[in-house]
Amino acid sequence: MAAKRDDGSTLVAENRKARHEYFITDSWEAGIELLGSEVKSLRRGQSNIAESYASVEDQGVWLINSYIAEYPGASLFPHEPRRKRRLLMHAKEIHKIAIAVERKGMTLVPLELYFNEKGRAKVKVGLAQGKNQSDKRQDAAKRDWNRQKARLMRDRG
């Protein structure tokens, strides 16, 4: 199910692998164009954005390969679970993202899918650059060291 946050928003899906696989340099909040049955499925917490990505096409940003389960009550007009969904962003933001993706070879990855405090579905997308194996090892070593340091401080204190 969806998790309530301190700021009033409700987290529906999170892409935990993104922070492990990429350096996130910048992030934006974008609205997402959904059908009614998709909103009901999201409210039930039935979605996954782990394998999805975003791309700039036709003067817009599209969320590709995200999974939103079919809602059982919408048998008359069901939606396609893995369809392309348009992200709603300002033209300046889209232009900035398009330049970064083209020139710098960066990727646009979804980080979180949530309902904001007004109840609107939002996607947090991040501009990312891929990590190599040694970067991932360094991050793991740093995480282990911080954990060990906290343990030492707790035992001494």
Ordered list of secondary-structure elements with their pairings:
Layout: E1 3-4, E2 10-14, H1 16-21, E3 22-32, H2 36-43, E4 47-48, E5 53-57, E6 60-64, E7 67-68, E8 85-88, H3 91-104, E9 107-115, E10 121-130, H4 133-156
Explain how this protein is built.
The protein has 157 residues and is α+β, with helices and mostly antiparallel strands. The chain has one domain (3-131): Small protein B (Small Protein B, Chain: A). 33% of the residues lie in helices and 35% in strands. The protein contains four helices and ten strands. The strands form two sheets. It has an eight-stranded antiparallel sheet. A two-stranded antiparallel sheet has the order 4-7. β9 and β10 form a beta hairpin.
- What is the share of helical residues? 25-40%
Chain-averaged pLDDT: 87
**Class by SSE composition:** alpha+beta
Give the count of helical stretches: 4
Q: Note the overall shape.
A: globular
CATH architecture: Beta Barrel
Total E-strand runs: 10
Main location: cytoplasm
InterPro entries: SmpB, SsrA-bd_prot, SsrA-bd_prot_CS
Protein name: SsrA-binding protein
Subcellular location: Cytoplasm
Task: Offer a few descriptive terms.
157 residues, alpha+beta, Small Protein B, Chain: A, 8-stranded antiparallel β-sheet, two-stranded antiparallel sheet, 10 strands, globular
